Amino acid sequence: MSRTLILLALVACAYSAVVQVPLLKVESIRNRMIRQGTYAEYLKTKELRRLYINRGEAATVGQIVSDYEDEAYVGNITIGNPQQQFKVILDTGSSNLWIPDITCGTKPINCQSDPKCSSSLLCQFECEDQACCGAGPNYTDSCLLQAKFDSSKSKTYVANGQNFIIEYGTGSARGFLGQDTITFGGVGEPQLTVPNQVFGQATSLAAFFEGQPLDGILGLAFKSIAVDQITPPFINAVNQGLVDQPIFTVFLEHEGDQNGVPGGVYTYGGLDTTNCGPVLAYQQLSSATYYQFKMSAIGAGSYKSTKGWQVISDTGTSLIGGPASIVSGIASAAGATYNSTYGVYLVPCGTKVPTVDITIGSNVYSVDSSNTVIPLGDGSNNCIFAVFPFNSFGFGPSWILGDPFIRQYCNVYDVTNQRVGFAKSLQK
Ligand SMILES: *[C@@H]1O[C@H](CO)[C@@H](O)[C@H](O)[C@H]1NC(C)=O
Ligand SMILES: *[C@@H]1O[C@H](CO)[C@@H](O)[C@H](O)[C@H]1NC(C)=O
Ligand SMILES: *[C@@H]1O[C@H](CO)[C@@H](O)[C@H](O)[C@H]1NC(C)=O
């Protein structure tokens, strides 16, 4: 018996690893909606829903409502044995893994005939099948294009059956829980295998997900903010001793208007010495929920605010968000003007905006125009200036340091020591 245990320990050691998994850059959903002329309507629905939620009439929303409308990086994972592959957002701003179930979109409720499902706003709260909500005239099924998990085909699947529901700004993902072996990395890519992972199998997705270039979400933040208190996949890997070090490093490539091109690398279990310089500093987390810590100042050009805030490092948000008054100061120093149709600041593409300077600990991290001026893709010469007004309503962090910051500085997420490290990204 004890010899078996020792052998198992040795085997576990031999297999604990550093695994580098590539990402794919896809067109951001926001840019696609802007191009299709549906973004203004989308923002309106979202605002209404937010008001509704804040009046306390809806199911609780335990997290910052992250909508992924601006998300542009996805990676492959697999679930089950044999492996079934999914494209997911690898999101440090949430903590649950879910993918569509084989039954997703096949529920018998008829959207048209149930009056609770006819109003686009109330639908999200009252209609049993969220897939009806926001459905356009040619609506088919929000899971139609998504890969779906078929548990009957997996030898390692363990039924759980408990319900789950995760709320987003414009609807929800809901279904039931299951357990299986998952891998970070797809078939034919380097893989980190994590047995016994509990995850959501969505049977219904808000219409918002229809046609998105992603199947699901994999949250990389802490268990404390996980819906149903499920141990998140990377923490599960650390707990099982499957990685060299309890860290993962995120390297994101510059955003361009290309679609379907390599987008960066996630390194599980170690530093990324290929794409990132040495770690300049680690910042202790103030709260191990999100990767939340203190930012002491932010500015651009002649503007600077040193008020000090709680911030999070969030790969699932493609801009930098903060309080409107300070964002407005930064934007005017950059010569950007607010476009209320799109809900973002715009600058003419090619504008040399000043760096956005972020003070964390005793270091100043400067994010330059290659990362803060983002093509909009609407045919105009307008680009998005990557700082947007974000209202935390007094809860949680005041700022979100999203992809522009992470493209400039690789972020090292250390789950055991509860800190985030920053290293220069070595890309040109
Ligand atoms: C993911 O899998 C798809 C399909 O097999 C493949 O085309 C793609 O290159 C893989 N990698 C990424 C990062 O998407
Ligand atoms: C719905 O489908 C019809 C027929 O295929 C097409 O003419 C129309 O443009 C579509 N409407 C939308 C909003 O996509
Ligand atoms: C926002 O920008 C678009 C062009 O990119 C323009 O058509 C629209 O009128 C602008 N809206 C406002 C409120 O400025």
Automatic annotation (TrEMBL):
UniProt KW keywords: Aspartyl protease, Disulfide bond, Glycoprotein, Hydrolase, Protease, Secreted, Signal
Record has Glycoprotein as a keyword: yes
Protein's name according to its UniProt entry: Peptidase A1 domain-containing protein
Record-level GO BP terms: proteolysis
Record domain Peptidase A1: where: 73-423
Signal peptide interval: 1-16
Record's GO cellular component terms: extracellular region; lysosome
Alphabetized InterPro entries for the sequence: Aspartic_peptidase_A1 (IPR001461), Aspartic_peptidase_AS (IPR001969), Aspartic_peptidase_N (IPR012848), Pepsin-like_dom (IPR034164), PEPTIDASE_A1 (IPR033121), Peptidase_aspartic_dom_sf (IPR021109)
Lineage: superkingdom: Eukaryota
Family assignment from sequence similarity: Belongs to the peptidase A1 family.
Active site: 91, 314
GO function term, MF aspect, one: aspartic-type endopeptidase activity
Disulfide bond sites: 104-127
Cellular location(s): Secreted
Pfam family, one: Asp
